[in-house]
Task: structure prediction
Amino acid sequence: METPHPSPNAHNAGEAPRLSVTAPQGFRAAATAAGIKPSGKSDMALVVNDGPKDAAAAVFTRNRVKASPVKLSQAALADGALRAVLYNSGNANACNGAQGDADARESQALAAAALGVEPSEVAVCSTGLIGELLDMGKVRVGVEKLLPLLGDDEAQGEAAADAILTTDLVRKEAGYRGEGWTVGAMGKGVGMMAPSLATMLVCITTDAAATPQALDAALRKATKVTFDTVDIDGSTSTNDTVIVMANGASGVTPSQDELDRAIHAVCDSLARQMQADAEGVTKRVNITVTGTASDDDALNAARTLGRDSLFKCAMFGSDPNWGRTLAAVGMADAAMDPENIAVYFNGQPVCERSTGTPGARDVDLSGVDIDVRVDLGTGGPGTATVHTTDLSHDYVEINSAYSS
Amino acid sequence: METPHPSPNAHNAGEAPRLSVTAPQGFRAAATAAGIKPSGKSDMALVVNDGPKDAAAAVFTRNRVKASPVKLSQAALADGALRAVLYNSGNANACNGAQGDADARESQALAAAALGVEPSEVAVCSTGLIGELLDMGKVRVGVEKLLPLLGDDEAQGEAAADAILTTDLVRKEAGYRGEGWTVGAMGKGVGMMAPSLATMLVCITTDAAATPQALDAALRKATKVTFDTVDIDGSTSTNDTVIVMANGASGVTPSQDELDRAIHAVCDSLARQMQADAEGVTKRVNITVTGTASDDDALNAARTLGRDSLFKCAMFGSDPNWGRTLAAVGMADAAMDPENIAVYFNGQPVCERSTGTPGARDVDLSGVDIDVRVDLGTGGPGTATVHTTDLSHDYVEINSAYSS
Result:
């Protein structure tokens, strides 16, 4: 069967090149198998910024139930400075109460001591099962093993990108080359994925010089139209964290526009890789809504459609079921003209003035990519795009057996 | 495998008895196979109120995209009077534009002419595929066939209840016996089911005397806590319609309290039958949220959890995954104390103060009924219950192949 999973080495035209987090000057990384994952695969990673600058910014999950490492990293990022990020997969350290908070703090302190920096200069990110205590014996040994493995080779950046994966099938990296400066990035995320002004685990590094404020502006602008528009299953994680670190090692200070473009490029690339690798995915479904008074209305409608189980099952069945499309958007919190809705599948009109076109049921949706456009008929300029997937047997299989 | 599908003749203690729409005095029904369903099963039904009174009330879908029969029946019900309801299954007559509206009007006029009443005294309800024109040749013959079949036997009421089914596996009827008066009811609905102050197709008949205002009050009170709390897949249909007709043939005028209790009893019974027969269901999951400032907050949180695909997959896998429960409610539009959430599965505490209890993962969820209680920890008096199901392979199978 044809699948949308990208080859780890695929590089589409116009897409950000795959560059590891060690591609920019002055960043080192390492990964190890600390035994947190029962599979024995690598499950801890460390990304270190060797300076000279330590500017950083981040966005976090908006879920009210936040994992211990999220709360700790929010505090660490408050001053816009960071020297390192410690990652573990296999355990989210979420909903573990005071012990979870203490374990996150100890992880942070261990990494800081090993690197000779202050704990507040280290962020901690965890991903995996919710509600199991971290085995701190394994974390202590893991941090010890990571230190001598730190290096600035591409292989070490790739190893770090591998170590943060959970049910992901492929490594996710992206990059951007400016004039005299570079951005590298890694990410993970394939389920419990409906970032809400935040996202999954992502680490972006750059040797450009930039203030924390410039980084923050670029990051928020980029995540709004990239990670925030990926909606695999409507579920927002307790651990979403995107961090960007800039050390100025290149000596280049890009303009805000250049910085925005670079950060957008790597976020967009990682978001598309996450969509393509989503749990159980057999189709990539990109939904664009137009014809609304505001972009917010369009986004609400696109999200409502992208979360509709019946629509997603139809996509799995390659079924051009525009009736379910109308039924779904009809419940969106968006002004619309119910008698003047148009739907296009892969560019072909299947519904005009809220009524099916001749031949609508014959549109071929057998390919891996399905493009859905819905015009809500108010004549307004609003538009938004959401990236989702189908709802398949494999999604049910993966998620009915995950924790047991 | 044990399944939650009720036997058509099951009658649980405390549940409304199964009485067909012809159980009350002065109501006749009929059903026929008009050929609208490719299977050849019965697909048209007529329920007639022979008076003396013609009081009626109804609630309809809040979806902005409304089927032609919904718009027509809303107009017919405006004066609180109704003599008959014409049903068809196999075709929703939704999203068919002006032709759909004309076809609904012709169906209404055909039934009215056959019965010798005004078109405005007849409601029309359709259910089935969206976006295909009704075959009016078949509808015309169907109405002709229905007329001589009308009768007040239980068998005719049951035949009508069978004729409105689509992917439902079992007939759904309910009833209530007052002192000297009776309520009968039939319903259908197993997918595209998240009624929003409205519901699926339901017909309630009674020989009690009641004003349209009394019926309307009883119906709205009942649907709010019955059909509106069923949420199978978060999708709200274009065709939801619940109609109640009262003819006063018994000569009894129950108090508003008695009427409320009777209407609630039949709505509650039908809602539970719909949940038990939901598409692909292997588990009935009843979610109660407490500890919120308001009932609305509790309902928002219960709905958010009941619509979360990851939580529903865990239920399919009999997996006591309280972590996903917390992650889901953390995104609800409800005030909560994120550090003080408690979760109970089948009465057993699995999470207290937002942290797992010892043995939480060993709770047995292998049965058909799963009771989930979540306390959001604010100490407030708010509470609400939502009735949902698991997300199973069969749900995906049924809904990826439905229209093709």
